[in-house]
Amino acid sequence: MAIPSRQIGGSTTTALLWQISKQLEELICVRAGGCGSTTTTTTTTAPVYSFNSQFSETSNYDLCTSPSYDPNLYSVSSTLGVGVQLFSSDSLETPIIDGWYVVDGNVYHVTGGNGFITELGIPCSEFVINVTDRFVDCTAPCEDPCIQPWNYFDVYMTLVCYLNFPTIGCEIWLNSEATVAFPDGIYNNGNGNCITITDGVITNVV
User: How far is CA 38 from CA 4, 33, 34, 44, 52, in A?
Assistant: First the structure.
């Protein structure tokens, strides 16, 4: 407990006792390492978030079809979007290189050499491409194979459907805007397979 200030006008005995108490207090403070007020500085480190990704240096299309490798990305932001900076390690010292990255199905384009996301790409599941080598234009009944070389319909579908054609649920369009559906019907896909299309959507494959 701190010694109160010395009172003016007290007796000699009181003054002597106050002096002894003050000296004892100083000795105790020296032994304890100081009695003065101390200031504690706390440094708060921002959390670092990690993201698994796939990468292509060339294009959105190449990213979705043949990514180069699978880097880990790091950021102080828990969500990704335009303006977020990404790094190649949790030390946050080296920005990632420019290119196309896909994280949880979303595509991000990094440009400028400083790791910042500058635009959003097209998710691979929604990437519509022109297809001329998947859907066989065959007039033979479904049970009969078509004579090769085959002709193919010039159509549009998502990249995912293209890579997994024919798959039930995939949509097929006649234009790049994906607004004109492929005509309904049952189509021979070359090897006698029957593809049923309803409202532009593959509803059955036999």
Answer: 21, 11, 9, 19, 45
Q: Which two tokens stand for residue 180?
A: 């004109």
Closest CA to 122 of 205, 61, 187: 61
Whether the predicted model's global pTM rises above the 0.70 cut: no
Q: Other C-beta atoms within 10 Å of 81: how many?
A: 10
Largest CA distance in the chain: 126
Give Cα separations from 93 to 85, 88, 112, 159, 167 (angstroms).
11, 8, 16, 36, 45
Cβ neighbours around 9 below 10 Å, total: 6
25-29 contact pairs (CB < 8 A, 24+): none
pLDDT, tens digit, 9 for 90 and up, residues 42-51: 666 779 999 9
- Give the pLDDT band (50/70/90) at residue 153: very high
Triad 43, 49, 54: Cα angle to 5°:
150
Q: Which residues lie across from 129 on neighbouring strands?
A: 157
Peptide linkage before 149 cis (omega within 30 of 0): yes
